[in-house]
Amino acid sequence: MQDPLFDLEAPTKRSRGVQPAPPLADDIALAAALSPRIHLGTSTWSYPGWQGLVWAGRHSEATLSKTGLPAYAAHPLLRAVGIDRGFYRPLAASEFERHAQQVPSGFRFTVKAPSLVTDALLRSEDGRGRQPNPLFLDATAALQDFIEPAFEGLGRCIGALVFQISPLPGPLLARMNEQFDRLHALLLALPKPPAGVIAVEVRDAAWLTPDLVALLRDTGARYCLGLHPKLPPLAEQLPLLRALWPGPLVARWNLNRLHGPYGYEDAEKKYGEFSEMLDPDPETRAELARIIRGTAGAGQEVFVTVSNKAEGSAPLSVRALAQAIVVA
User: Fold this and answer.
1) Helix, strand or coil, per DSSP, at residue 173
2) For residue 23, what is the DSSP state?
3) Where is the signal peptide (predicted)?
4) Which of 7, 78, 85, 262 is the most exposed place for a label (fewest CB within 10 A)?
């Protein structure tokens, strides 16, 4: 009997134009072997190069962005997806609701909070900081422009609502006590989501201290395991996860360490259409699989999204990660 937490047969609204690639028998078997508590997915869904992996035909990025989600969600291993574009501008409840209506029951979304509240600087189009952001970690802005629309639009489809705090400028790094106080006050002001969790991801190792553990414990928020060269390797972040145990796991595998902390553009150029796994990282994958198995085995939910920049092709990384979870 299919677990109601993830019903592969649940009806979805499917675009006539974008059809899913025929599922592989091995992927169907892998999906059946995974705990329904494990939600694996990619950081977004609009890549034409996934033809044959996720899509049955060739489509433009714009078409996939608008109408490709139902086909994506039909893939047996893709039980989650990230919504990163809300980082650049807040999304309305109606936009979240449209996404939620296109996926099966059990599918989950990992959503990044807008930079409006997670970046200490207001930036120009080229990414350079122009001036201090007066709404940095502001609870009122977070509620109005992120939490309330996400709650209303996504509801039970929420996996993780992630406050990814951008790299801090030097003067703020020199006053980390103030930043911990700001974050603590923000999280205390947020209501509990109807499903899933609220999580915090950082880009500065200065956050990874007992102070972060204490404020996350006090507020019920989770630490988002950030697999990114700007942070210590996964193994060095494990003590923080252990200190917050038990609880759900939130992880975002963002960028292969070989590209360095500012290597997004280099990775994008190298990986092309993201149709091949060009830089396998079996060590990270195996450690992440071990953590996922332990978390789900203890009855906790798991929300993991993978970027194309992790190994070259996010759908292939998800498949390899599922294999590592099941086979070990």
Assistant:
1) helix
2) P
3) none
4) 262
Closest C-alpha among 61, 83, 21 to residue 273: 61
CA distance 19 to 45: 13
Mean pLDDT of the chain: 93
* Closest residue by Cα to residue 296 from 254, 246, 253: 246
In a domain, 207, yes or no: yes
- The reply to whether 296 falls in a domain is yes
Handedness of CA 24, 27, 33, 39 (dihedral sign): negative
pLDDT higher than 60, residue 5: no
Q: For residue 283, give the 3-state DSSP assignment.
A: helix
Span 221-233, mean pLDDT? 97
How does strand 129-132 pair with strand 121-123?
Answer: antiparallel
Round to whole Å and give the CA distance between 96 and 293.
30
Say yes or no to pLDDT of 127 above 90.
no
Domain total for the chain?
Answer: 1
Strand runs (DSSP E) across the chain, as ranges? Answer: 38-42, 80-83, 108-112, 121-123, 129-132, 158-165, 197-202, 222-227, 249-253, 302-306
pLDDT above 60 for 168: yes
pLDDT for residue 4 = 38
Tokens of 124: 């120009």
Could you tell me the residue range of the domain that residue 172 belongs to? Answer: 25-327
Here the tokens at position 190 are 């947020």
- Beta strands 129-132 and 38-42: pairing type? unpaired
What is the CATH number for 236?
3.20.20.410
